Amino acid sequence: MSVSFRAQQTSNKRKTLGLLFTMFVVVTAAIWAVAYLTGYGAAWVVPVAVVIALVSVWGSYWSSDKIVMKLTKARVIDHDTAPQLFNVVDEVRIAAGLPMPQVAIVDDPAPNAFATGRDPDHAVIAFTTGLLDIMDREELQGVAAHEMSHIGNRDTLVMAVAATTAGLIAIIADIGIRMSFFTRRGSDSNPIVAIVGIVVLLLAPLAALLLRSAVSRKRETLADATAVALTRNPAGLRRALETLDGNSNVVKAHSSAVSQVWIESPLDGKKRSLFDTHPPMAQRIAALKAMEYTGPASA
Q1: What integer pLDDT is reported at residue 34 of this predicted model?
Q2: Residues 236, 263, 117, 167, CA torsion sign
Q3: Which residue in 204, 172, 153 sits closest to 8, CA to CA?
Q4: 80, 119, 70: which is closest to 103 by C-alpha?
Q5: Phi then psi dihedrals of residue 104, to 5 deg
Q6: What is the structure's pLDDT at 185?
Q7: Splitting the chain (299 residues) into consecutive groups of 10 residues, what average pLDDT does each group show?
Q8: CA of 176: how far to CAs of 39, 189, 201, 208, in Å?
Q9: Global pTM?
Q10: Can you say how many angstroms the Cα of residue 211 is from the centroid of all Cα atoms in its chain?
Q11: 3-state DSSP helix/strand/coil percent for the chain, to nearest 5?
């Protein structure tokens, strides 16, 4: 079954919004559970949760590029250091209609790349030395387009919201469970509803982590589709992903804090998990092959 890149874009934007809305529902359910189990009502929980969320999202969004650059040990380079790489990135950013991002290099033999930055005016695209060593210009253009798509699609903001919300839910659930042991609701409380509240608080953090991973996977698929829109050449990115899939080296910066930013996750194993931050590589390659068959002009 053929798939056009525009259909892929529309589908994944819709699914991402749906997943973020579901996270909001989980937050609401956790707040309700805390309010019921403590007997104090949701009046104090809601403003505290909102303040924590706003501060956390703003902080992680504003400083995300500095955190990622430090953890990955990426260093910004100038045009004279890698003129061909700069030219490839410049071609893609012109097609995207975005400002020129900073270009960085990560000294690591494992082929990989990532994009970071709080907005298109403060963006960085980084490539490992291993990727630059093994990929030809067409493959490199596909990777650059994928990372430029993350910048254009505001994935830094989306993932900051998803990650921070997951953390917020964990905090609310932990506070709620602890307080429920020291608070009595009174004789009018319904034991069945109380059990439901406890179950909600126990499952909410797990649900939030699953949703965060699902949001990340949708953003990766969206970036693949958007990259095709920029280059009009699904084969370039498809061959790049095949090269990544065939290489067993893993980047040194493979902590869970930055695993979602790489074009290929250094943490996702061969056995698929609901907590994986990236779709299966075979699935991504198959989707790009389908776009090759359809042809971007027909979308």
Answers
A1: 80
A2: positive
A3: 153
A4: 80
A5: -130, 160
A6: 54
A7: 54 76 83 77 64 70 83 95 96 95 97 92 95 97 97 84 81 81 61 84 89 89 92 95 94 81 83 85 94 60
A8: 11, 16, 7, 16
A9: 0.82
A10: 11
A11: 65, 5, 25
Residue found by looking up tokens 């007997």 in the block: 39
Which sequence positions are flagged as catalytic?
147
What is the per-residue burial (b if ≥16 Cβ within 10 Å, else e) of 63-97? ebbeebbeebebeebeeeebeebbebbebbbebbe
pLDDT given for residue 125 in this prediction: 97
Task: Identify the pLDDT of residue 1.
Answer: 32
* Both tokens assigned to 11: 């589908």
Confidence (pLDDT) at 36: 78
- What's the DSSP call for residue 199? H
* In the chain, where the domains are located: 5-298
- In 3D, which of 71, 142, 150, 79 has the Cα closest to residue 117? 150
- The whole-number pLDDT of residue 53 equals 66
Q: What angle do CA 127, 129, 134 make, to 5 degrees?
A: 100
Torsion (CA) 264, 159, 127, 286 in degrees, nearest 10: 30
Say if residues 108 and 228 touch (Cβ distance below 8 Å).
no
Torsional sign, CA 263, 266, 269, 273? negative
Quote the pLDDT of residue 3: 44
Residues across the chain: 299
CA distances from 6 to 10, 13, 34, 256, 288 (A): 6, 11, 42, 31, 12
Strand 124-128 vs strand 102-106: parallel, antiparallel, or unpaired? parallel
